[in-house]
Amino acid sequence: MRPLTFLLILIILVVSFSLIPFGVSSYWVRFLSDIFMMAILASSWNVIGGYTGYPSFGNVVFFGIGAYTTGVLMGKFSIPFFPSLLIAALFAVIFAVLIGLPVLRLKGHYFAIATLGVAEAMREVVANLNITEGNMGLTLPIYLNPNFFYYVMFGILVLTLLLTYWVTRQRLGYGMVAIREDEEAAAVAGVNTTQYKVIAFALSGIFTAMAGGVHAYYMTYIEPGPVFNVMITVEMIVMSIFGGVGTLLGPTVGAFIIEGLSELFSTYFLIIHALFFGAIVILAVIFTPRGLLDMLSGRRRFGLGYFLENIRQNRV
Amino acid sequence: MFTLQIAINGILLGGLYALMALGMSLIWGVMNIINIAHGAFIMLGAYVTFFLFRYLGLDPFLSIPLSMLVLFIFGFLLQRYLINWVVQATMFITLLLAFGIDILLTNGARIAFSANFYRVNPSYGGARLDLGSLTIPEVRLAAFLVALLIALLLFLLLKRTKLGRAIRATAQDLTAARLTGVKVAHIYALTFGIGVALAGAAGSLWSVLFGVHPAMGGPLTLKSFVVVIIGGLGSTTGPIVGGLILGLAEVFSSAWLGDTWKNVISFGLLVLILVIRPQGILGGTK
Amino acid sequence: MSEINGKPILEGQGVTKEFGGLQAVDNVDFYLQEGEILGLIGPNGAGKTTLINLITGTIPITRGEISFKGRLIVGLPSYKIGRMGISRTFQVVKPFRGMTVLENAAVGAMFGRNGLKRSTQRALGKAAEVLEFVGLSTKSDMLADGLNVPERKRLELAKALAMEPEVLLLDEVMAGLNPSEVDEAVGLIKRIRDSGVTILVIEHVMRAITGVSDRIFVLHHGQKIADGPPEQVMNDEQVIQAYLGKRYGRAQREGEDAGD
What we know:
The structure holds 3 protein chains of 3 kinds. By secondary structure, chain B is mainly alpha-helical. Chain B has 11 helices and 2 strands; from the N terminus they run ααααββααααααα. In chain B, helix 1 (2-31) packs antiparallel against helix 10 (238-257), helix 5 (138-160) crosses helix 6 and helix 10 (238-257) crosses helix 11 (262-276). Chain B starts with a helix and ends in a 10-residue tail after the last helix. Chain C has a 6-stranded mixed sheet, sandwiched between helices. Helix content of chain C is 40%, strand content 23%. Chain C has 2 domains: 1-85 and 167-230, Rossmann fold; 95-164, no CATH class. The two termini of chain C are 27 Å apart. In chain C, helix 3 runs parallel beside helix 5 (149-161). By secondary structure, chain C is α/β, with parallel strands linked by helices. At the A-B interface, helix 5, helix 11, helix 13 and helix 15 of A face helix 4, helix 8, helix 9 and helix 11 of B.
């Protein structure tokens, strides 16, 4: 994508979304904040899963680490919000490096399961530590201001997109995609695959952790289960797939559509929401395995044939 | 002596874990699908047994063939008419499809069966075998023996029957199997059905030992993973070894560290094995 | 034994690779003189690709030493060896399918020798030059996925050349090419050597290998059985036996004796 095009899209987004809170009720402000959060998560996941080709099934671990780091710093040590967020991001990076080095040596299925195991283990660890109040839950200082959280989430989303865009135009981005396409060929071409994978993993964690921190402050009260919930990882992945893995804006588009629709549905039944989500996942995966953006990019003919071809390619 | 008691508890538990994981291992080994919805099928098996017990008074152990049959049919149809559409896609596409199915099944169960927790309590539920200072609950022993029996039947099916050979051929090389006349789509559906039936059997046993409720699937899926990974993919004895190891690890960590760290140990074991020996203890070259 | 003018740019001593009990490469000594084209031949399974994998660090060595410009490279990770100036192509080509042809070459330009000092822009420029050299300029913006077989071979070559190697290891680049394409390839390889690159060529196409090599090195069952100028090696009895079997070798010898 040309820098000019990207800049233009970004400006339009920034301007329109900045003005929205002034015209709508706080319900919509919160609604959009949730969507921004999922967009951050999906776009971040895309860095390790989409661009580098290492499908992490445990990225929620960064969300939880961000939430709990922020929670503990603000709730127990009275450290202000923004410094807490930065420290949370730092912890996420450190965690990514420590865990990434052993785990990124695995491929495909094994990597997916190992990351899943790591996330589950972290949840248990957090649930059993004293400093996090374990399963009793952690309380943060109260701050009721939907607009504040709206702008902070949006800001982080913009940062995530900017960083992703920048990376894909740098040597790092080329290296990551080369790793995805053919790791052995990338290595002999001179790519330090271990280093790059760890960097990609860490990048996927930074903004995820910050989003977790914002979420924690916003909710004022967090428990290990919800912030380390594997379903959040599933959502990130489905949104990325639906919008288009490995594309810049695909995950964001996917987040808007899926989160948007399921929020609208949940005004009816909570369980119908879950059923709806399950059905969406199945349909998205069968009919648009390459994502919405691929479908709309015009490289393939759009229509029933497109969907049928996906199935034909993938079935036995 | 105390340690021996704990070890026996671990082994009995391990047998059940092994049965749970056999289905997942079969499906994974043959079709390269990681069935994240595995726990949901275990849950369904548990509910079948529960309802047969509650409304027909059928002994839970006798209901096992029925729950296996029901789940086999369900699994067969599910694979043939839904999962088959993505079976050759990338690994995480199939993973996500399984997630979607899991969500539907779990929430569907919540709606259909209510979120109450039930237990199947046959009259002999409390009976215990006393051997010196050791106490062995009879239902646990029975469950262990049933699990072993079913594992043996699976082993015989795979090694001694024509169907078993077709399944193993398909697992090794899809194209070659096709070329020798194996109806691959059919084998896939059968394999999935069998895998799910095994889950159902495990669920039936679970309903007696630990109860049944809609959300029970999730943790069981993860436990099955751990067992499959530890024991190694690609062998029928792998899940058995893995199951025993997990069972023993859990009861010993419960006894020495308390319940709270039990799950950390399980997942820690998983990550450790993956990093040190990804093919598991008995695993082949996958 | 040929004469050695100065120190070889790449050499190996006692190079051995064992898989289980099998010696894929068995105590091989080899050397590459700067600026020469060394042909490496041998029947299938002789250990040729394994030797290349050992040089590039793709697989770990069991025993022996390999040095590049006097420096030991055994045990170094592949990417370091690539950055030092040794590039290779793969027998079964490994394009980066989801990237364009230009981007494929650019990866080599960004990460090879001198790569880290280049900006992305310069790397793309270098990549374009290399594509020009191998004749793929018209396909720059096409996805690597869409190339046909000869084009993929050229791309494989371009990726390696973009790294500005001092030593280039070619693994059966000519497999699957028709005779006129083979001649083109031979011409290209010679041009590459003329630009200052030392080349090791693995080939099965005999006409090509004798046409392009200054010297030929023969492996059989992982062992070196001949090393010398093409005419000498191609008439070596052991080499003929290795390819065509003992009986042919004996018949050849008897024929020569009888003809005297």
